[in-house]
Amino acid sequence: MSVETSKRVTLETLQDKATRLRIDSVRSTTAAGSGHPTSCCSAAEIMSVLFYSVMRYDPRNPHNRDSDVFVLSKGHAAPILYAAWAEAGAFPRDKLLTLRKIDSDFEGHPTPRLPFVDVATGSLGQGLSVGAGMAIDAKQFENSDQRIYVLMGDGESAEGSLWEAAQWAALHRLNNLCAIMDINRLGQSQPTMLEYDLEIYRARWEAFGWQALLVDGHDIPDLLAAFDTAKRTTERPTILLARTLKGKGLIGIEGLEHWHGKALDKDTAAKVITELETHLTDAEWTPNIPPKRPNGSEATKSGKTARKPPYAIGGKDVATRRGFGDSLAALAKTDPRIVVLDGDVKNSTYTEEFENAAPNRFFQGYIAEQNIVGVAMGLAARGKVPFAALFFVTRAFDFIRMAAISHLNTKIVGTHCGVSIGEDGPSQMGLEDLAMMCAEPDFTVLYPADATSAWKATTLIAEHSGPCYLRLGRPKSPILYNPDEKFAIGECKVLRKSTKDRALVVAGGVTVFEALAAYEQLQKDAISIRVIDLFSVQPIDREELIASARAAGGVVITVEDHYEHGGLGDAVLSALAQESVRAYKLAVREIAHSGTAKELIEKFGISSGHIVNAVKSALQEVAATARH
Amino acid sequence: MSVETSKRVTLETLQDKATRLRIDSVRSTTAAGSGHPTSCCSAAEIMSVLFYSVMRYDPRNPHNRDSDVFVLSKGHAAPILYAAWAEAGAFPRDKLLTLRKIDSDFEGHPTPRLPFVDVATGSLGQGLSVGAGMAIDAKQFENSDQRIYVLMGDGESAEGSLWEAAQWAALHRLNNLCAIMDINRLGQSQPTMLEYDLEIYRARWEAFGWQALLVDGHDIPDLLAAFDTAKRTTERPTILLARTLKGKGLIGIEGLEHWHGKALDKDTAAKVITELETHLTDAEWTPNIPPKRPNGSEATKSGKTARKPPYAIGGKDVATRRGFGDSLAALAKTDPRIVVLDGDVKNSTYTEEFENAAPNRFFQGYIAEQNIVGVAMGLAARGKVPFAALFFVTRAFDFIRMAAISHLNTKIVGTHCGVSIGEDGPSQMGLEDLAMMCAEPDFTVLYPADATSAWKATTLIAEHSGPCYLRLGRPKSPILYNPDEKFAIGECKVLRKSTKDRALVVAGGVTVFEALAAYEQLQKDAISIRVIDLFSVQPIDREELIASARAAGGVVITVEDHYEHGGLGDAVLSALAQESVRAYKLAVREIAHSGTAKELIEKFGISSGHIVNAVKSALQEVAATARH
User: Fold this and answer.
1) B623: Cβ–Cβ under 8 A, 6 or more apart, which residues?
2) Which of A155, A190, A591 sits opposite B405 (nearest CB)?
3) Which end of chain A has less neighbouring CB within 10 Å, N or C?
């Protein structure tokens, strides 16, 4: 294939294209007044060879299912990515001059606002995980000979996430994945750790199970031969370790330090471009568009599940994580888009139930949370609905942030949240997950209190298009809801309500049961409270919260198994910001400890007793204020 | 040294100690009813050899500056760590039976509540970075022959952060760092990725610059010889790749799957312990305590800086990140405890100023944020005051979380926060950093608006003991404060104030200038507003906020260059939760974009114009409510 392809264009054409990409990279960044032209120019021959010889794709239809895919992991080289697509005919070249403008989709780093960008990049060391997700999708589900190319910088090989991706891709023998490392020796502020020690790079990649090919990144025949070798390789992914010069082709700048992330001034740019233009030829090129596949990806359509959660009120206690696992297993049968990624905790998150139901769509990610989320991002970009169930969602926060920027249909699930996980102690407790997940404006965040609502929440987020987070708990708890209860994103549940309510208690997860116990205790003192199970933390049910807060006399108590800042309480306070309420947040206010769930709920101030006290003292304060 | 040491105890003694550690690990986890006895037992000989032959330390004084240091990266093996210290005489053995109890410091995973634990572990893949930080401290600053031992599990070698640490330790030729990987082949839910393929492990570690020694992890002479080789090695760190059996020594359990994280029931434990006891001998052992060093670490004492920030009101605009860099450079001269870590962005964070002032205390961490924070944790644990200045604090969140649990004196600095960074686009914008940092209950979070307050904030956090976060911005801004202005953690600044104030505007960083511009515009309409520069987001100046909100008629507008949830606005709302206020949050409510800082501040609703509109519509709403 590659040999045939490379015959279609001459070496002169490819060199000409590289020159054009350099010119456009300089021109657009100078017009913008900022950007990374030198990081583009080191990759000009790599991009030219990929875009105008190696890759099969349709410039006008980048989402053709069998097109080869390109991921720019070194996102700061965005201008050359844009230039490559313009040169291929995807859009008029003059659009390149809108680079970095507020009304342009040609942002400083690539985002999926552009049709040919699947996943936002710019936080380094993420592209290879994304590429691995796409590659396994092509191989395992699409039966496609689609190839995935990921261009990385040498600086980003310091990111550990790269090695997570490398080992995982090798484990899965992703020979349809080809990485290229643009080794231009210079980072932002100084030379990279390994500079031009390509043998060390080679040893590392080979030790991680890859075929590593050393190439001159500015030598077009060398690059063509290496891509050809990669294409013909079975059983292993390939990396081209391409020795390059930063700013290659820019006279007076080539190979120099202190040129990272600097646009050329207009005079320098004009001089550089004039020189580059002397190398231009006028070569013909037509894209190599893959044939339409006979069968589209019909298998990826969703079916609705008709099944119901199998738990009964008054029946056995069940953990919300179990409700999630049961629901996933049910979804395995009806929704072939769903895939599940595990971080060697499947027996705690209960994703092993999905593995049993659909082993082909279950991936063991081992203890490498960043790569797990990155692979999920790649799978989501290709139409799958990936669930990544983790203990340590914090570990993957930067990937999750990029998933939000990309608005990818990824489902993140945290199963070990709160002090109520118990004896394992603070290192194992997710107590800041709501803060991080709700911060992302694109994320839907659900927090079910019982296994039935966890079951339903799983179905809801599977069917919702967009990034979601599901907060689960470790302990078993009673069943609160009937199997027929309807749940919706953005809606809470009012569990206790009367016309005599004097305070509103908003809880979530384990604290719902504390709130219900507080209700019973307060009833004995003839104090009625309204109790809400928040369920949907984001979007929040502002309307119901306002109505309930008003009906309960404006006294609001929030109670959550989460640190004080950025959790359920803050979400409620924010929803009620314009209301005349007195609100009291009960939350974990210090570093937690080992102990039983019950002891910890008590110790950290979120038990029914604390709710009772908070309600009583709030009512006293209100009365005292009224007397003034 | 090692040969001499190993002569002090017999092989029989070491085997006896290993048996005792097994017994205690089983006994304590069975008493607790949970825990990871099998993960302890695979490491029993490793622990015995380290604690009773290889390591020099004083069981009664674990903080002796020249003692060898042990970091349990596989934190779930905590019971054997506790057993080892008990066996060494650090505390009475019966305390082991308080494992995982709420009133015990012997938590499920190690935390620095215990004097012999420097850094909390339990989130895997972090210990090696911490060890590297300690090792460079011993080597570079303490001139100590102290050695650092880090015990890791095989499962955690999937974490990319491990490879970040590995490359960094090799780069610095930390031959005083010795890692041990307990390769027991079994993860939590299934076998590890590499199982017993020790040659692949060896190739990876060697490619990353380490001496890798394959050993039988249950063979005491083999272990002793390997530790001896490690001690005599110059120029390179060493890893012992120790092949072990999970649950080694526990009859009926040894080497079996599905025994991760399970305590033995009482009967099984009794049987196992009875069998283990048949191997006990009654061996003598005394600790090998290193001599007191002639000179203590006097160089690590703090000096107060007398210098002042060099900026003048009305002078040139200066970025807060520059104020930070200038302040750090000044501190370099007065506080020898301060060290600085950079992620190849020193020319943007201005930490290069510190590098110029104190090159010996500046460490290039390259693009590996997790390891940078991990090394900082290790340095902090040894008494240094490390500053880690990053673009992507989100990348290191899980390490930061563990630094909070450890209450380590680490200073995290985010220099590229908010949409106001401009053209680089959303991937480069820290817009969730306040949510994550304020969530950690132990973190002090400062957010200076101008270079003078950034300069002072840097000094404040350098002198404050405990984890801190400093939020900085990219754009240049006017100088607001005189060099003599006093700042304090927990105090805000009231910038505009009159008796006629009708609304309070609380801002931070770049939005302070928007609030001041809004003040001017509103003055023209004869509307007075009170303006607060929040400065200290955590702890927050609740008293002043309440007083100002009351004085301004209970109308509060918050405005921040951060996502809506978990930021400055939520911190203010929380402080005012019991006040009768109407609050309006202006914040970034969607995924950001490239553009100029000014355009983006406008587009995302946090400009002076938006503040003016918010104040006016709030006042209209208040008037409308009053009319009802």
Assistant:
1) none
2) A591
3) C
Nearest-Cα distance to chain A for B200, in Å, is 6
Q: How many CA atoms lie within 13 A of A282 on its CB side?
A: 0
Question: DSSP letter at A359?
Answer: G
Structural contact between residues B498 and B528, judged by C-beta atoms closer than 8 angstroms: yes
**From CA A329, how far away is CA A346, in angstroms rounded?**
13
Task: Using CB atoms, pick whichever of A160, A441, A589 lies closest to residue B591.
Answer: A441
B416, B417, B423, B424: CA torsion to nearest 10: 60
Give the C-alpha separation, A57 to B181, whole Å. Answer: 46
Task: Give the list of residues 6+ apart from residue A623 with CB closer than 8 angstroms, or none.
Answer: none
For testing contact with chain B, the best of A106, A199, A417, A432 (most B CBs within 10 A): A432
Burial of residue A299 (CB within 10 Å: 0-12, 13-18, 19+) is exposed
What is the model's pTM?
0.97
User: How far is Cα of residue B138 from the mean position of the Cα atoms in its chain?
Assistant: 19
Query: What 3-state class would DSSP assign to B376?
Result: helix
Say how far apart CA A197 and CA B604 lie, in whole Å. Answer: 45
Alpha-carbon distance values, B104 to B32, B107, B260 (Å): 11, 7, 23
Which residues 450-509 of B have a C-beta within 8 angstroms of A? none
Secondary structure in 3-state letters for B41-77: HCCHHHHHHHHHHHCCCCCCCCCCCCCCEEEECCHHH
The tens digit of pLDDT for each residue in B273-312 reads 999 999 999 778 999 999 877 654 545 555 565 689 999 9
Give this complex's ipTM: 0.97
Q: How far is the alpha carbon of A294 from chain B, nearest alpha carbon, in Å?
A: 37
Model pLDDT for residues B520-557, shown as the tens digit of each residue: 999 999 999 999 999 999 999 999 999 999 999 999 99
What's the gap in Å between the CA of A58 and the closest CA on chain B? 27
Kindly report, residue by residue over A60-113, the tens digit of the pLDDT. Answer: 998 888 899 999 999 999 999 999 999 999 999 999 999 999 999 999 999 999
Residue whose C-alpha is closest to residue A482's, from A504, A510, A455: A455
How far, in Å, CA of B448 to CA of B479, rounded? Answer: 11
Q: In what order do the strands lie in the sheet with B501-507?
A: B493-496, B528-533, B501-507, B555-563, B582-588
User: Under 8 Å CB-to-CB from A242, ≥6 apart: which residues?
Assistant: A46, A180, A181, A182, A183, A215, A216, A217, A223
